[in-house]
Amino acid sequence: MISSKIDLEQDIQPLSEFRKHAAEYIERIKNDKRPLIITQHGKSAAVLLDVNSYQKMLYNYNLNEELIEAERQISRDETLTHQDAIFQVKENLKKWK
Predict the structure, then answer these.
(1) Which of the 8 DSSP states describes residue 55?
(2) 34 in any annotated domain
(3) Does residue 32 lie in a domain region?
(4) Confidence (pTM)
(5) pLDDT in tens, 49-90
(6) pLDDT tens, position by position, 3-48
(7) Backbone phi, then psi, for 82, in 5-degree steps?
(8) For the chain, what is the domain count?
(9) Is 41 part of any domain?
(10) At CA 48, angle to CA 43 and CA 52, rounded to 5?
(11) What is the rounded CA–CA span in Å between residue 60 and residue 71?
(12) Is residue 78 included in any domain, yes or no?
């Protein structure tokens, strides 16, 4: 998971510094699991994450979107009983055979 603590000296670097030491920064990101914030012209420009942290972040984002949609469906009373859901699954399985 992405660490919530940012080390202001290590985790925020200008683009010019990242270019000089890209391999070292990437290795540090992979080992420490902390993102690197890259600045350009004194302003934050990009965030570099290790692949596993990025995948977890995407998974959590997608799960959150699904939960929001489920809440919308509940508020619009677009729900099924357990029995109706089982019936629909069985009917769909018959079509796929």
Answers:
(1) H
(2) yes
(3) yes
(4) 0.68
(5) 999 999 999 999 999 999 999 999 999 999 999 999 999 999
(6) 557 787 889 999 999 999 999 999 999 999 999 999 999 999 999 9
(7) -60, -45
(8) 1
(9) yes
(10) 155
(11) 16
(12) no
